[in-house]
Amino acid sequence: DQIEYGTFVSGGNAADFGNLTSGRQIFSAVSNNVRCVWGGGRDNPGSGYSTKNIMESVFFSSLGNAVDFGDLTVARIGNGSMGNNIRGIFAGGSGLSDVMDYITIATTGNATDFGNLFEAEDNFGGVSSSTRGSLAGGGDTTIQTIQIATLGNATDYGDTTVDRLTMGSASNSLRGVFFGGAAQSAPSPSLDVIDYIAIATGGTAVDF
Q1: pLDDT digits (tens, 9 = 90+) for 69-113
Q2: How many CB atoms lie within 10 A of CB 207?
Q3: What is the pTM of this model?
Q4: Are the C-beta atoms of residues 169 and 157 closer than 8 Å to each other?
Q5: Residue partners of 187: CB distance under 8 A and separation at least 6
Q6: 58-79 pLDDT, tens digit each
Q7: Which of 45, 146, 154, 198 is the most exposed place for a label (fewest CB within 10 A)?
Q8: SS3 106
């Protein structure tokens, strides 16, 4: 249940921030410049895993424990996430789900249905600009996208350079980067591939 943080400008080892409301794994987060919200995941009570619909949040400016934010529409693990300064979207997860739901990051409360993924996925990475969010991974090369301000279903956006799942992702207002992960084919070796997309235009990802 540990939360830790680092300071971008100075580097160095991470420091203790606080704790989640409970220990969990395989979930995702959205944030603006004030608050971070985590959603989904599973615990391990010792007698089997319990999938969660929990959302909880912290304010970046104040060290301390996470507090309850509300509930996702569906309990799930391995969900992807994307968002902008106003809205956060949690998508897919739990054995190839096509569910997408969203929150207004500034306001606590339960998530609301956003639409459906173009292709049901789990264990994938999300990137965002202020207007568009895109998801990739989940065991194939598909990249799918949404307009964050407009409710509706995701659409096909292009392809990554290799098919993989459980990869990392990062973005700014122009470019989204997908890195690492595991190949879908047995025996699922770990990958060192980094590729990127121009978030505004879509198309096939390019080696980074």
Answers
A1: 999 999 999 999 999 999 999 999 998 899 999 999 999 999 999
A2: 9
A3: 0.94
A4: no
A5: none
A6: 999 999 999 999 999 999 999 9
A7: 45
A8: coil
Please state, in angstroms and as integers, the Cα–Cα distance from residue 145 to each residue in 1, 18, 24, following that order: 31, 33, 27
pLDDT of residue 180: 94
Q: Give the separation between CA 197 and CA 207, rounded to whole angstroms.
A: 9
Tell me what pLDDT residue 11 has: 87
Both tokens assigned to 40 = 């989904």
Are 74 and 53 in contact, with CB atoms under 8 Å apart? yes
Question: Which residue, among 101, 165, 169, has the nearest Cα to 137 in the 3D structure?
Answer: 165
- For residues 39-72, b (16+ Cβ closer than 10 Å) or e, as one string? bbbbbeeeeeeebbbbbbbbeeeeeeebeebbbb
Give the separation between CA 182 and CA 189, rounded to whole angstroms.
Answer: 6
